[in-house]
Amino acid sequence: MQIDLNADLGEGAGNDEALLGLVSSANIACGWHAGDAKTMRECARWAVANGVAIGAHPSFPDRENFGRSTMHLPPEEIYAGVLYQIGALAAIVKGEGGQLAHVKPHGQLYNQAVKDPVLADAIVAAVKAFDPGLKFFGLAGSGMIAAAERAGLQAVEEVFADRGYMPDGSLVPRSQPGALIEDEEQSLGQTLSLVREHQVTAIDGSTVAVNAQSVCLHGDGAHALAFARRIRDRLTAEGIAIRAH
C-alpha cells in the first residue's frame, strides 16, 4: 500500500524547507494568493533537492484575503489566470533543474470548482493547454475530478488530514463549526481511515466512501511540522509507503 503526502508551500509559513523533507508532493503558491518569484524559486530548489514532485498552486487574484474570497469571474479570465500562474512557476522550476508534475487549485478557486462544472472545466482546460501530461489534484469524488477525467488528464483524488467532511463528501466550509480538526489524534485517526479503509466519518456521524490517493497536510498550522512528522512516521510504521504519483 502507498499514499502521496502533499503540502501547500510558499505561503509564508516559514517551514517550507523542513516540510519538503517529509512530503512527496509540493503545491507551490504562484503569487496570486501568496508568495513571490523569490519564494517560488526557493521552494522549487528545495523540492528538487529532496526529490519531491512539484505542483503549481494557482488561485483567484486575491492576495488581500489569501485566495479565500468567493469570486465569480468569466471562464476566459479563469483560463488565462491559471495558465499565467502555471507558466510562471514552470519557468522557475525549469531554471532550478526540475519539471512541473501537477496542478492543484488553491482556496476558494478549489472550493467553488468542486461544485461549479464551468469553473472546473476552465481550470482543467488551462492545465491541458499548458501540458496534457500534468496531473490534476482535486477533491476526491468531486466535480473537479470528473472535469479532469473528461479532459483526459490524470486525476489525483485528494483528501484532507485536518478538515471536517460533509455527508456528501465535500469539506465543511471554513465558516462553519467543525471545518478544522484541531485535535492531532483525531486528524491522525481520520488519515489512517482514509488511507487504509477509503472512508471518513462526516460531521453528522455518517460514514462516507472516499478514494484517497493523496493526503494534504496543511503547512501553515502552529504545529504543522510536528504533525507532518507524526503522520509520516505512523504511515511508515503501518507499512504504507510515501510516494508521489
Characteristic key phrases:
10 strands, two-stranded antiparallel sheet, alpha/beta, single chain, 7-stranded parallel barrel, 245 residues, globular, 40% helix
Q: What does this molecule look like?
A:
Helices cover 40% and strands 19% of the residues. 46% of the residues are buried. The chain has helices at residues 16-19, 37-50, 75-95, 107-115, 117-130, 143-150, 184-197, 224-237, and strands at residues 2-9, 25-29, 53-57, 100-103, 135-139, 154-160, 199-201, 207-209, 214-217, 241-242. The model has no long low-confidence stretch (mean pLDDT 96). It starts with a strand and ends with a strand. It contains eight helices and ten strands. The radius of gyration is 17 Å and the shape is globular. Helix 4 (107-115) crosses helix 5 and helix 7 (184-197) packs parallel to helix 8. The longest helix has 21 residues, at 75-95. With 245 residues, the protein is of the alpha/beta class. The strands form two sheets. A seven-stranded parallel barrel has the order 1-2-3-4-5-6-9, surrounded by five helices. A two-stranded antiparallel sheet has the order 7-8.
